[in-house]
Amino acid sequence: MQLPLRIDFHSGESLQSQLFEQIRRLITDGRLRPSTRMPASRVLADDLGISRNTVVHAYERLTAEGYLEMRKPVGAFVSSKVIAGGGPLPVADSPTEDDQGPTTARRHARLVFRGESHFVISPYDRPVLYDFWVGRPDARLFPAKTWQQISRQLHETHIGNSAYGHPAGLWELRQAIADHVGASRGIRTSANEIVVTHGIQEGLNILARMFITGGTPVVVENPCYLGAANVFQSHGAKLLPTEVDSRGVDVEKLPTDAAFIYVTPSHQYPTGSTLSPERRMQLQEWARRTHAYIVEDDYDSDFFYDTAPLPALKSLDRHDQVIYLGTFSKSLGAGLRIGYMILPPHLAATAISVKGLMNNCMPWFTQAVLAEFMASGAFQHHLRRTRMIYNTRRDFLVKMLSQRFGGAEIYGAQAGMHLAWQLPEEAPAAFDLERLARSYGVGVYSFKTGNSLVSGDEAEARYARSVMLGFAALDEHEIEEGVRRLAKATSAPDAAPRRTVAPEEASNAQAQEFAYIR
Amino acid sequence: MQLPLRIDFHSGESLQSQLFEQIRRLITDGRLRPSTRMPASRVLADDLGISRNTVVHAYERLTAEGYLEMRKPVGAFVSSKVIAGGGPLPVADSPTEDDQGPTTARRHARLVFRGESHFVISPYDRPVLYDFWVGRPDARLFPAKTWQQISRQLHETHIGNSAYGHPAGLWELRQAIADHVGASRGIRTSANEIVVTHGIQEGLNILARMFITGGTPVVVENPCYLGAANVFQSHGAKLLPTEVDSRGVDVEKLPTDAAFIYVTPSHQYPTGSTLSPERRMQLQEWARRTHAYIVEDDYDSDFFYDTAPLPALKSLDRHDQVIYLGTFSKSLGAGLRIGYMILPPHLAATAISVKGLMNNCMPWFTQAVLAEFMASGAFQHHLRRTRMIYNTRRDFLVKMLSQRFGGAEIYGAQAGMHLAWQLPEEAPAAFDLERLARSYGVGVYSFKTGNSLVSGDEAEARYARSVMLGFAALDEHEIEEGVRRLAKATSAPDAAPRRTVAPEEASNAQAQEFAYIR
Q: Of B21, B235, B262, B473, which has the highest C-beta tally within 10 A?
């Protein structure tokens, strides 16, 4: 897109201010429509012959004042808040510009939040037909009938809607969770050690508030789940990324001064590896020795296929050092917003305090339905059913990829809802394939786009040719068609030039794309 | 309660360690049962002839290790987590004590959270029959029938349960909220500036993350809603409490360097005063001049009785400096856990980022039901109905208090769901009356117990004879009986000695009670 911008190098006005003003006018005049993607800062800088920093700062100011919005990792867009007809921003009785500019800017300077968020739906605005987005259950398998039956009964006793509940969550739900993790994950616990949360994400925030202050060292896996890394960093943690291989995080490389380590032992996010039994022992020993906690994120452990899963780290927690995070987002659906923490006894009271401080308590109704759903045995039944179906889909996806690409190199498929695919040599690098596939109506995801933090050049290069494919939400027909299109995309003429991009270059190009406004 | 403790002043072991060990044994042996209230630190210190600090530190360690739990403002209790039969803590495969002690302690030292929570239900464990607890709607008035009808229809389209939603909340709900605040509070806004939150409490946390870092100056009212003050302080804010009188917060006493002021202009919490029109103008002018934001907590503005309410500060927000917080906790029920923020356009993106970082998004179902409930007009109908009923109850409570106590001095009754009562001279001071009333089955609340932060000796003395009474959740029969018992309590012989306590002394005694473990 070529924007009608003209920079006057001899004007008294700064280049940045000129750029800001001209783009602002294009937006308020309606020539730049809401949700239009802006050119990358580097591209625009080259076009105009100015420095990239100038563009970055102009974009920043436009974002701060509501004209642009950042949609990472894609880039800057004209704000969807601009009236769709193209008119000016809907600020009624707005003060004069002279008045607003500096005041808003100075007030805006009060903002101290420097965190970044992550994507829960998809980083892209426009959906694709065949979307292998990660961690998404199949909505068609939601146990609607049983759920409705329980809901109908509960509506009669609507009392819970009117009042606050206990900050730790509904007692019946906490008991049902204790029973469930006892049977499925080998964890001996009680309702007293369980705090119900708005998903694992809230559990991560509670932990951050409990343990992190400026500079607190926190070990994360490399690569690591971005939603966790962002929370820790936004609270001031010093992240210590530690290498992951096919046996999970490399325990021998752990530092000795961490407050805690954040791990995904059942199905490492994003690589899908399982932490080996020996490393589990070593990890516990490391935590005991260094007085660190272990945060065990067991996000998709309800799904395992070839063998029974290893017991949770929490089940071996002889020294009260493991904090376990679980969720119903994968087994039932993220729209319920129910997860939980299982804490060592001496930490439960603090976690409950933080939870209370954050939002008082959980909503009653969904907790009550879920508690009954679990107690009735319907949850176990649902798990067995979906596990079987997802197993079939996983097998089918692996088969299709192998057929279409001549023996695909798959890892992390033994459990969970996504697998990782090491791309064949003739395919473009991960991020290029991702963009190419979208034009064919297929969603596959490079690690970075798939909510992973990949730290360091070495790791970036290593994973530049890996993509993640979620398989739970697509049926066999959809998987078949998705992979067919993927094969077509990689063999299309427009894929050809991209094949020449070396992994390192691809990785750099990608890094620039991501970084183009901070 | 006399505990069988014996301190050996000539032992090599420290007094604190002796105390810790002996209490711990009483608990694990089952002689101190779960949920038993511990003696106040001062009382125990006097009994044993040791310093209060020694007791405080022993209690702290017992709390940290899970043997005791603090239930503020009442005090320390034996943990409910100790097995109810009296056995030791349920730590299976527990390491030896020598091993556990220092390790747990050192690991416990990793905790950096120093915040305090507040009470959403009641600070007391045992309910009373006639409870004038504040901010509680009448569960019997919940619009169950309509709610169920909408729920039934929505269950058919259960799709929202399976997936994440937008971090800012369900679009339809945000639109319904924009319409509602336009009509009821004079606020011109759009769905784009609204973020749905888990109650106002979450909105306060989002603001804290946006604006507060170590030492950030934040103005609060004095007295102030404790749930807000605790959030700000836990993020490191320097609170600047500013005096409140019958016209709301005293705007002339505001400092010039605050990041924001947190106010409850419709119905000041806890005093119930309404911010006067002149002060509203002055406050906006102060914010403009000092580049501060105004956080307007409009928690119970759906209820007003004698005259129409003043428009929200946000409705006069010509300089994009007001952040408005609203909730359905009072109009429908806190168990729904739905509130919202209305932000100036330039802050919306940051608030949405923080919300996403905290817990990704809101649960779908309740949002969807509420959106339809509002769009259908049922919400307006419900508000008119409850407003009328609460009006009658308020009138009746005022009448009963006046009859029983010969012309009660009431304030803050023009709006909301609670009023404040300046106790007559013959009654005990607020906190004493509160305790006395409970023994008669009646819940009334001193400002402090009712989730208020009262700062400074002067304010403590001023409000030492004020109690809060919520009137929305009790019908006329209950109000009548509650006030009858209250009158009986104050005229009972056991009330007599307390009458001799001067307000200052009462206030000090109360402060000690509150502070007895930090």
A: B262
8 A C-beta contact, residue B339 and residue B174: no
Are A471 and A138 within 8 A, CB to CB?
Answer: no
CB distance B335–A162 less than 8 Å?
yes
Mutate to test the interface with B, among A20, A107, A355, A417 (most CBs of B within 10 A): A107
Q: In terms of CA atoms, which chain A residue is nearest residue B146? A: A155
d(CA A161, CA B136): 12
Phi-psi region of A30 (alpha: psi -120 to 50; beta: other; left: phi over 0): left
For residues A192, A198, A201, A203, the Cα torsion angle rounded to the nearest 10 degrees is -20
Report the residue from B89, B103, B198 with minimal CB separation from A319.
Answer: B103
Alpha carbon distance B425, B408 (integer Å): 11
A130 CB burial (10 A radius; 0-12, 13-18, 19+): buried
Whole-number pLDDT of residue A227: 96
d(CA A122, CA A315): 34
* Residue A394: HSE in the Cβ half-sphere, 13 Å Cα cutoff: 24
Digit-coded pLDDT (tens) for B294-331: 999 999 999 999 888 899 999 999 999 999 999 999 99
Most B CBs within 10 A among A116, A148, A166, A198, hence the mutation to make, goes to A198
- What digits encode the pLDDT tens for the residues A381-394? 999 999 999 999 99
Cβ count within 10 A of residue B153: 12
Residue B3 parent element (H or E):
none
Give backbone dihedrals phi and psi of B152, rounded to 5 degrees, phi first: -60, -45
CA–CA distance, A34 with A351 (Å, rounded to integer): 42
**ipTM for the complex shown:** 0.79
Residues of B in contact with A348 (CB under 8 A): 66, 81
User: Tens digits of per-residue pLDDT, B438-453?
Assistant: 999 999 999 999 999 9
Residues with Cβ within 8 Å of A198's Cβ and at least 6 positions away in sequence, in order, are A337, A338, A339, A359, A362, B198, B358, B359, B360, B363
Neighbours of B126 (CB within 10 A): 6
A248: left (phi > 0), else alpha (psi -120 to 50), else beta?
Answer: left
Contact B380/A at CB under 8 A: no
d(CA A470, CA A266): 16
Which DSSP state fits A333?
Answer: I
> At a CB cut-off of 8 Å and minimum separation 6, what does A416 contact?
A266, A267, A272, A300, A301, A303, A304
Angle of helix B476-491 relative to helix B430-439, nearest 10 degrees, comes to 110
- CA-based end-to-end distance of chain B: 22
* Residues of chain A found within 8 Å of residue B334, distances taken between Cβ atoms: 162-164, 360-361
- pTM exceeds 0.95: no
pLDDT band, residue A495 (cuts 50/70/90):
low
